[in-house]
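Structure tokens please, single chain.
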Amino acid sequence: MKIFEANINRQVLDFFDENLKEDISFEESNQKIYKAFGIIDFFDTNEELKTLKDIISIAYNSVEEPDRAEYGDFQTNHDLANKVILHLASKNIAPEIIVEPTCGKGNFIIAALQNFKKLENIFGVEIYKPYVWETKFNIIDFFLANPNVNKPEISIVHCNVFDFDFKQIAKQYSTKNILLIGNPPWVTNSKLGSLESTNLPKKTNFKNHSGLDAMTGKGNFDIAEFITLSMIKTFQNMNGYLLFLVKNSVIKNIIFDQNRNQYKIASIEKQCIDSKKEFNVSVEAALFYCKLNSKPAFDCNEYDFYNNENSYLKFGWVADKFVSNIDSYSHTKQIDGDCPFIWRQGLKHDCSSVMELEKVGDNNLHGNYVNGLNEEVILEEGLVYGILKSSDLKNTVINQTRKFTIVTQMKVGQETTYIKTEYPETYKYLKAHQANFNARKSSIYINKPMYSIFGIGDYSFKPFKVAISGLYKTFHFTLILPQDNKPVMLDDTCYLVGFDKVEFAVYSLILLNSTTAMNFLKSITFSDAKRTFTKDVLMRIDLLELAQSINRAGLQAELDILNKKYNLNLTLNLWKSFIKEMEPVNNGQMEIFA
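Here you go.
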């Protein structure tokens, strides 16, 4: 049965039926429940009491619980909650105060009541009112079944977590041992905003991103991350522990930002769980655990929650470097520095149905293409270039593309009015699809020339490129050669370096695909990241250091393999020139690669 859209079982229903008689007042009802179960202000208003009395007299309630998964609301099941509490108890953790900022249906609270014997106060906050009721009902049900257990004072508050004053708890109970526990929403601020949720923090750039970063995605953060950091900041000076169930990315971000925040947390652990088994969702998640009021730590041990004997690995900060595997990083850390090249992201247009084309008919007949709208198109060749996506970067060397794209600018912000006179067929085609360009949602196109693209510059038109997919978890670099005497483009899921000399591109390819480079990348990248490789990661590869340490015979052997397989016919005659080009000028990357 449901009351206030919350599940209630027969035992709790019988208690209310017996104790909340028709003539009992609002104050008397709250006092009776507090005396019996320790729950403060069970009813917020007299209207709630009256409604409950009315509903009790009805044998059936047809209100169905809505699906709140879209809000990142994945309720911790009874079994997992109990295992988590037992795990904490096995560490001899015995809190006096428990705070759960998004308590949901109260399964962590029930498990804590069952296993922690020294509890004095419990504070639960929940924005979804049916869950508030269900938590209260579940607490009563627990005490009715276990009348002799310790009954702490319990406050379950219906409130937006971002409006609740947790600082008052920290101030009032500063000398107590605290446990912060919970499963905050697995959703980003932009997602909740699109759902018109009110459960959002006040608008703030809490990570202090630059304006461009905030516009292009870095300003989008996980709600659980915000809540976790808020709890740490508020309670870091109290003795106790924190354990939150969050996405893996949240844990990584917290450890990364710890170098700047230096919160008083230590003994940090990431306990990996099976999200598919526990929540039936394909999201990488884990328990984030730390000890409060400690000398700041900057690394995290990773474990399997179900088999906690051995650590998978340790990740975090080594001096001023953030790495995914501290042990393996030690073997290749000598090449962790500054790349002498500028790694770039491929071009971005957000209009693939119009801008991306495939050749049709006779491949020798220039200008015949079909777009993503299945329209046959005839264009001048001047602005049409082959383009590769992440899924295309499978081979070591590529000189043919399956797709083409229209490149309207040679640099960001360039005027595009020239297209009308120099490429009338292309202009006519673009103009006919004006609505598609107008529908582009990203703010980066606002007040920019018509048909603008991004991720374009001199580097895009270098004839030879070395590239890697940012999306795929393949530790493999690809050499991109010109197609029909024109440079090949890459899309914004790829990262690239452009060269004027094929020899320099091939030398770089050999270095980047070396065992040392691969092991280094594996030690600083995270397998569950949305993008395994980013510009920040790639810019850490000090190819000059790697080139100066490489065995010349091994280099020649790799070059011979490439020559034979791809008919390149290259030598090491330009190796010294390559080394010289990589040497820094004025402590910066070489302009030739910019």
